[in-house]
């Protein structure tokens, strides 16, 4: 009825990316961990939420600990906050995820 489907899908994907970015901006690095880790573990564990819960919790703890250690190892003159490090990790991850999902839909 006059709406181009490909443009609508792109606008929907852009809106979803903006919504996720806004949610992460409000919740901080913990929200990013909750979004990243299940996507990383799903190919290894499977898509069942019940089987993904415990590995996601452990993976999230490991990811946060690793990011915190990396932040603490930076020189004192260039102190980086944990939220900034997680955003630097999560931003490219979600961009790659968005591109791969777009390729699957095409």
TrEMBL record:
GO MF, one annotated term: transmembrane transporter activity
Location within or outside the cell: Cell membrane
Protein name per Swiss-Prot or TrEMBL: ABC transporter permease
Transmembrane segments: 12-40, 52-74, 80-99
Bilayer topology term: Multi-pass membrane protein
Keywords recorded for this protein, A-Z: Cell membrane, Membrane, Transmembrane, Transmembrane helix, Transport
Cellular-component GO terms for this entry: plasma membrane
């Amino acid at each position: 009825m006059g709406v181009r489907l490909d443009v609508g899908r792109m606008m929907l994907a852009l809106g979803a990316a903006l919504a996720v970015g806004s949610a992460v901006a409000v919740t901080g690095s913990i929200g990013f961990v909750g979004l990243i880790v299940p996507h990383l573990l799903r190919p290894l564990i499977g898509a069942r939420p019940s089987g993904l819960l415990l590995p996601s919790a452990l993976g999230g703890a490991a990811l946060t600990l690793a990011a915190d250690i990396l932040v603490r190892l930076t020189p004192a003159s260039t102190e980086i906050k944990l939220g900034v490090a997680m955003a630097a990790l999560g931003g490219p991850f979600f961009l790659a995820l968005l591109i791969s999902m777009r390729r699957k839909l095409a």
